Amino acid sequence: MTPSPTLKKRFLLSALALLPWMSHAGTSAVSPSPVETVAKTDLITFDTELKGRVEVRDNNYDFNSSVNGPQDASWLLTRFRLGMLVTPTSWFKVYVQGQDIREIGGSRPNNIGSFGADGDDVFDVLQAWADFGHDADGLSLRAGRQPLNYGDQRLLGNPQWSNPTRAWDALRLRYAQETWQLDLFVGSPVNFVNNRWNQSDYFSTREARNAIVSGLYFSSKSLIPWQSVTDFYLLNEQANKAAGAPGSPLGAVGKTNFFTLGTLMKGDPKKLHNWDYEMEMALQYGRVAGLDHLAFAGHWGTGYNFEHAWKPRLGVQYNYASGDDDATDGTNNTFQNMFPGNHALYGFMDTTGWMNLQNPQLNFSIQPTSKLKLTLDYNLYWNATNNDAWYGANTTSTVRPVNADARRASSFRGQEVDLNAYYKLNTHVALQAGYSVFFAGKYLAQTGASDTAQFGYAQVQVNF
């Protein structure tokens, strides 16, 4: 399947918008780090980020070539961040970071989340926290607006692909040693809205959801000698699902209070003769939207790292999340994806969340140079049950209504191929580009439109 002329035209025109950003590029061979300082003293450190990404999407949401909707277009996403770290003493520090995001072009409304838009949010507070103690050694407390990012972000993530990303008004108590740490935290997710100060559910009078997430998360690098990661966690989510609110359970309203008990493990290829593996499993129980809740999800993967200058790796994985087989039995079995960083975990086009899912994958990567990495991923998708919806990566949108046609249809959603390139130009500049295509399966064909979907992007990020 070759890119359509329309997609190629959109991508070419939109990519021109990135050229001004590219003028910052240099030639150093040093790899870029996540945060570089633009100014620093013993007391105050400043950091800044500039990011621009052109996206071109066609049929990504409706799989319907006969309708040219607001999501079938191209746009430029920009993000600017400015942060300041103040360290008066070795045991106390304060960090404040502002963020400005814009969506330029296309026909989507510039409201965050509307038709999947990253949207606009003129300069607002992304982080504002104080640390007491030593974050990496002994006991410490972080209080204020901050990211909560655990494991592979399958349940709690700080997704940097998303232009707004995610923030929490939270408290985090940590005890850390050289090879392990234990976190106890509680927080409320921040809502990003343009033209007013962003507030979390806890402090906002406009939000009916009132979500509060707390948890205990243990992570070790050495508990099992041949594993680089051994994590155990217990999470709790409390919220309210109001009438008309999207997401699982479909149509249900009421109080939510459930626990997630899980583990994440990763094998170290240096200790396993070039083999690696990873496994995450999570069991949920409690109540969701007034219904009894019991659900399960898992991720299992393994791969081989070849001894070659280009560092090739070939891997396979399988992702599963339960769905609700009977909407009338008073019990919800749809796994709750919580507040994840789902991007690229189940395909780069972000059609899918960790809910009502079966997803085998084949993954291949090479590094021809120290600065260039190429990845090729092949995904297959099935519903766990056709009595539940196909949920998107944002965890709330659904691709098809759950009706008689959907229940009778094949459970095979389709297949996706992702090709991506990552280039570290120098210490400050990172480039990224990719192309994805989704071939519709029988589930789409038997429930509505089933045209091929395509996605292309090019991104530059500059850190100082």
TrEMBL record:
<feature type="signal peptide">
    <location>
        <begin position="1"/>
        <end position="25"/>
    </location>
</feature>
<dbReference type="InterPro" id="IPR053728">
    <property type="entry name" value="Alginate_Permeability_Chnl"/>
</dbReference>
<keyword id="KW-0732">Signal</keyword>
<dbReference type="Pfam" id="PF13372">
    <property type="entry name" value="Alginate_exp"/>
</dbReference>
<protein>
    <recommendedName>
        <fullName>Alginate export domain-containing protein</fullName>
    </recommendedName>
</protein>
<dbReference type="InterPro" id="IPR025388">
    <property type="entry name" value="Alginate_export_dom"/>
</dbReference>
<feature type="domain" description="Alginate export">
    <location>
        <begin position="45"/>
        <end position="452"/>
    </location>
</feature>
